[in-house]
Specification:
Oligomer: single chain
Distance between the termini: 15 Å
Largest sheet: 7 strands, parallel
Strand order of the largest sheet: 3-2-1-4-5-6-7
Strand content: 15-25%
Order of helices and strands: EHEHEHEHEHEEHHEHEEEHEHEHHEHHH
Domain Glycosyltransferase family 28 N-terminal: 3-140
InterPro entries: GlcNAc_MurG (IPR006009), Glyco_trans_28_C (IPR007235), GlycoTrans_28_N (IPR004276)
Number of helices: 15
Shape: globular
CATH superfamily of the largest domain: Glycogen Phosphorylase B
GO molecular function, one term: undecaprenyldiphospho-muramoylpentapeptide beta-N-acetylglucosaminyltransferase activity
Pfam families: Glyco_tran_28_C, Glyco_transf_28
CATH class of the largest domain: Alpha Beta
Structural class: alpha/beta
Number of strands: 14
Keywords: Cell cycle, Cell division, Cell membrane, Cell shape, Cell wall biogenesis/degradation, Glycosyltransferase, Membrane, Peptidoglycan synthesis, Transferase
Radius of gyration: 20 Å
CATH topology of the largest domain: Rossmann fold
């Protein structure tokens, strides 16, 4: 069969799309991805060997403006383009993961009377998936507190590298990443877009962490404007293509609370201090509700993250093997490891009913 998988922009949309795409390809199906020219999909999708088609980026206007007045026309044109793709490529079903490319894909799929499946990664759905959920009964969600009706909890589709991360030797992963295999390790990441507050706080905390015997793997993101550094006790990189190795190498993390990150950390049993992105609809705070309740992580507002907090809270946790072990087990207790298989099963049910 031939499927169109729509999504993109951030890792939260691209990663689950790729996880499902790889499973479908392994089962003998053909997958075409739909995104825009501005998102991570332009690099990650071809890197994984999938065809990527693009449409114009269509941000939803938040207030009355000239852009708001022409938005319906642009959406209609994008939908018409996707409709032609569905017909010309003989697509059997549409799966959307949210993001700019999904709304036209859902509308075109509905016009073409094709099966539609929606996967919502965040606990608070965006416009595209709220629209998609009105057009189909096949709606999958990542977290139990997601605000979409008639949805089924399937978890996050994860690439097999993450579901098998517990098999990766921690010391070996550290060596491969250029880290000391014997030191407690803090992973720091702001997600695919980076995080200014996190980067600044860790920079201020480097001496305190070094004095405590803790090494840092710091992923700063492509927009941070920071150089890569590799020195004893501290390694700073722009982007990490092997996040499963970075997670396996680490004992604790400081991170944004994007859906992919939360799900990957839970699957690997990595406890973390989550610093939700302070702009937008606040979905990142909701993404960690279940994990925090289980004891698998901590939460702090972006404005409250300081070097003092790292010294008073994060360093003591990293210095306690028993605390780390308890938090790791708690994080793993809320993980859903078969999200890819569950989403694929929903897709096949949609096609066959």
């Amino acid at each position: 069969m031939r499927f169109l998988l729509a999504g993109g922009g951030t890792a939260g949309h691209v990663n689950p799309l790729l996880a499902l795409a790889e499973n479908l390809r392994a089962a003998g199906h053909e997958v075409i991805a739909l995104g825009t020219k501005q998102g991570l999909e332009t690099r990650l999708v071809p890197q994984r060997g999938f065809e990527l088609l693009t449409i114009a980026r269509l941000p939803l206007p938040r207030k009355l403006s000239p852009e708001a007045l022409v938005f319906p026309i642009k959406l209609l044109l994008a939908t018409a383009k996707v409709f032609q793709i569905l017909k010309n490529r003989k697509i059997d079903a549409v799966v959307g993961f949210g993001g700019y490319a999904s709304s036209p894909a859902y509308l075109a799929g509905a016009v073409a009377r094709l099966p539609i499946v929606v996967h919502e990664a965040n606990a608070r759905a965006g416009f595209a998936n709220r629209l998609g959920a009105k057009l189909t009964k096949h709606v999958a969600v990542c977290f139990p507190n997601t605000n979409l009706s008639h949805s089924k909890l399937v978890g996050m589709p994860l690439r097999k590298e993450f579901t098998r991360a517990s098999q990766i030797n921690q010391q070996q992963a550290r060596v491969e990443l250029g880290l000391d295999p014997s030191l407690p390790t803090l992973l720091v990441t702001g997600g695919s877009q980076g995080a200014k507050r996190i980067n600044e706080t860790i920079e201020e905390s480097r001496e305190d962490l070094a004095r405590a015997g803790i090494q840092v793997l710091h992923i700063v993101g492509p927009t941070a404007g920071l150089n890569e550094i590799s020195e004893p006790g501290y390694k700073r990189i722009i982007y990490c293509d092997a996040m499963e190795a970075a997670i396996a190498a680490s004992d604790f993390a400081v991170s944004r609370a994007g859906a992919s990150t939360v799900s990957e950390f839970a699957a690997c049993g990595l406890p973390a201090l989550y610093v939700p992105y302070p702009v937008g609809n606040g979905e990142q705070r909701y993404n960690v509700e279940q994990l925090l309740a289980a004891g698998g992580g901590l939460l702090i507002d972006d404005s409250d993250l300081t070097a003092g907090y790292i010294q008073q809270t994060v360093i003591p946790i990293l210095s306690s093997k028993s605390r780390l072990s308890d938090m790791s087990k708690a994080a793993r207790s809320v993980a859903i490891l078969d999200g890819t298989e569950q989403l694929q099963e929903m897709l096949m049910n949609a096609v066959n009913t």
